[in-house]
Amino acid sequence: MRAFLEMGPQGLASAQRALESGRHRVPRGMVRLLAPIGDPQKVICVGLNYRDHCLEQDLEVPTEPIIFSKFPSAIVGPFDDIVHPEESSEVDWEVELAAVIGRKGRRIEESSALDHVVGFTVANDVSARDWLTQRNGRQWLLGKTFDTFCPLGPALVTKEAVADVHNLSIRCSVNGQLMQDSSTHQLVFPLPKLIAWVSRFVTLVPGDILLTGTPPGVGVFRKPPVFLKRGDEVRCEIEELGAICNRVV
């Protein structure tokens, strides 16, 4: 997929022609969907990027984006299992809008930032809260990047197919119970600002994934806190992008 994205508009045009031909199709039931991007160079994440998520923690809204990362080895497909690690007793869910970079750039201007995005997908930024707040010097990396802690999918939806990426409903349910229900209009830093900010520090390349933050309703801030256990089913859904559903094992 990275090689395909590096082809730019030429690759997308070829894919469109293949789609319009009506050929090269197989029944959905005969395939297992993988993550739209399985081997990105970078998985870049943003913390505290929903106003309502800040409010549920009684935290001030950040004045600059809070950036961290996951390793690509955390990525799994839209219907693959989430493996509950033995090292954690506080595994949590976080539905997120993910943007996929389609064009290389460094020090990108906000005015042209979306030109560097090829499309969007749904992500679950699974998090081991005990490793975020109590272990590893309270650095976030290990608690965010256990294997299987980044389900993605069900597809890469091109930006042209999305009416307004900053006005999409975003939800997460656990075992059928709605836990998160918000809208991307609650983003503190919209995509152009995030892309411009991140590209001040690193070069963005085709296939890079940018997770844009989660809305309120995560397990750790419930009273009492609720965490995922083996056998739970987590469904993350974003309007116009589809849904992913992952079982905890």
Automatic annotation (TrEMBL):
PANTHER family: FUMARYLACETOACETATE HYDROLASE DOMAIN-CONTAINING PROTEIN 2A, FUMARYLACETOACETATE HYDROLASE DOMAIN-CONTAINING PROTEIN 2A-RELATED
UniProt keyword Metal-binding present: yes
Listed name of the protein: FAHD2 protein
InterPro entries assigned to the protein according to its UniProt record, in alphabetical order: FAH, Fumarylacetoacetase-like_C, Fumarylacetoacetase_C_sf
Any one GO molecular function term: metal ion binding
UniProtKB keywords: Metal-binding
Name of the coding gene: Fahd2
Pfam families found in the cross-reference section: FAA_hydrolase
Lineage of the species this protein comes from: Eukaryota, Metazoa, Chordata, Craniata, Vertebrata
Superkingdom field: Eukaryota
Organism annotation: Galbula dea
Sequence similarity: Belongs to the FAH family.
Fumarylacetoacetase-like C-terminal domain span: 42-249
GO biological process: oxaloacetate metabolic process
